[in-house]
Structures are given as structure tokens and as C-alpha cells.
């Protein structure tokens, strides 16, 4: 398949590497030194489980310079850059392109679809630990790599064959892909790990090993998961697994020193997804009448300190 990946950071860069290594046509939309390095040397993927791979077949350009028509547009930017992705799709894509956002923030596909009614925007999510180590180099610290995507309830089912093919192509690229028949449930289940992990990690400014042992940090992490679970139940979602057990299993398997991207952005004084990963939960709690005191506590901390 032919892919355009909007955003070549920890998420988009990892996906680009795996898809290109499996023989797919991949172009990443990047900028600055990262763009220049990929153009000159290709994309380098550094991992602990498969060594270092240099993928020279990955193409790179700016949003302005992209003039191709892909089969699939994977949107892999931070939520605060979602308007850039919407503008890019509106200008550069055609109605035959399947658009799949794989962001940390719950419900991004619906946000894009509302502003791109003529296109097909699925909802999606990803489990991955990746970041830009240096220009042109992506570091995947954990072998976990899972992508889930699907149509929302009542969404018009267009480009179905392409969505089904995407699942197969990703699986062939050693990406654990799942074309979900209940993406709202599955995306919120993923959110129930990444949001609590990011929120608690930023609040305590601690890394994964602190949350792998009993203490106030692990207790907070568990409590945040339970608040997201309560929200899901208020939305009418029945989860197929125990979210606390699943979240702890993922956390306990992380490499020592691991952090979520929101926490790293805050530490570096950058723009972060705090609004989407923390404040959005508080807003959903008010909308559905669900108490989320721990999220409110972290939101109040964020307003004072960020």
C-alpha cells in the first residue's frame, strides 16, 4: 500500500519504519532538522529488541511539498496540532484516501470527520513507546506495537475494502493491527492506560519503575484508571477486560525509566497534550455526571504549574 504519514515523531516514525521495511511505499511529513536528516540518510529506527535499522526507502517532505495520492493517510501528530492535519487533508487528499488518526487523545477521528465531511476518517489508537532520539533517528524503547482502528457507530461505511486491507498490510509489517467492530470501546480502553500513565507521571514527575511498586504513585495510577472506567460505563460501554489489570500489566512490563510523551514534553518546556489527556476527562466527567476527583486534582495542579 501507499502511505502518507503526517508526523514523523515517536508514533509516525515507528509506523513508517515498520511499514517501509515490509515493502510499502511510505512518505512522512516532517520538518526542520528531522526532515533534512531523513532526506539525506533515510529513517533510522533504534530498538532494544531488533537492533538498529536504517530504512532508506522512507521518503520525506514538508506538507506544502506533498503532491502524491496515498491509499492511507495516518495522522500521527500531537492533538494540539490536529488542525494542521485537517488543513493538510483538506488541501492534499482525495475522497479515495482512508484517513486514520492514531493519537493519544480519545475521539480524534470524530473531530476530524466533522471538519472533513467529504472524507472517510476512522477512529484509531496505538500502543507504542517511541520518540525522536536525534534528527532522523527514532528510538522505540519497548517492542509493544499495536494499532487498533475502526468505524464509529452510525458512521457511513466507505472504503471498507481499503480498511480491511490495511489490517492485513500492518500485520504483515509485524504491527499487531486490529480492525475493530467497537472502536469506541477499544480506543477508550487504550486511553485508560495512556491518560492515567501520562497524568500520574507528570504530576509526580516519576518514571515507570516508581509505578511498578506499591506506593502513592501506583495508587494514583490505579485510581485514575478507575475514573476513566466509570466514564466509559456512563457512556454505555462494556469493557471486555479489567482495565486496572490491563493497565498494571502494561506498566509493569515497561523498561525502567520509561515515560509518556506528555510528561517528556512538560519536562522540556514544550507544548503538551495536557488539555486532551487530563482536562478532557474532567470535561467528560461533567458532561456525563461522573465524579473524577483525581483528574480534577491533576487538572488544578496543571493550571497552577504549566
Layout of helices and strands:
Elements: E1 2-6, H1 10-21, E2 25-29, H2 32-41, E3 43-47, E4 52-55, E5 59-61, E6 72-75, H3 82-92, E7 98-101, H4 108-115, E8 120-121, E9 123-134, E10 137-150, H5 160-172, E11 176-179, H6 183-204, H7 208-211, H8 216-234, H9 243-253, H10 261-267, H11 274-288, H12 293-305
Parallel strand pairs: 1-2, 1-6, 2-5, 3-10, 6-7, 7-8, 10-11
Antiparallel strand pairs: 3-4, 9-10
Structural overview:
- This protein is an alpha/beta fold.
- The chain folds into 2 domains: 2-181, NAD(P)-binding Rossmann-like Domain (Rossmann fold), CATH 3.40.50; 185-305, N-(1-d-carboxylethyl)-l-norvaline Dehydrogenase, domain 2 (Orthogonal Bundle), CATH 1.10.1040.10.
- Helices cover 47% and strands 20% of the residues.
- It has 12 helices and 11 strands.
- The chain has helices at 10-21, 32-41, 82-92, 108-115, 160-172, 183-204, 208-211, 216-234, 243-253, 261-267, 274-288, 293-305; strands at 2-6, 25-29, 43-47, 52-55, 59-61, 72-75, 98-101, 120-121, 123-134, 137-150, 176-179.
- The chain has a 6-stranded parallel β-sheet, with helices on both faces. Strands 3, 4, 9, 10 and 11 form a 5-stranded mixed β-sheet that branches.
- Strand 9 (123-134) and strand 10 form a beta hairpin.
- Helix 6 runs antiparallel to helix 8 (216-234), helix 8 (216-234) packs across helix 9 (243-253) and helix 11 (274-288) crosses helix 12.
- The longest helix has 22 residues, at 183-204.
- The radius of gyration is 19 Å and the shape is globular.
- The N and C termini lie far apart (42 Å).
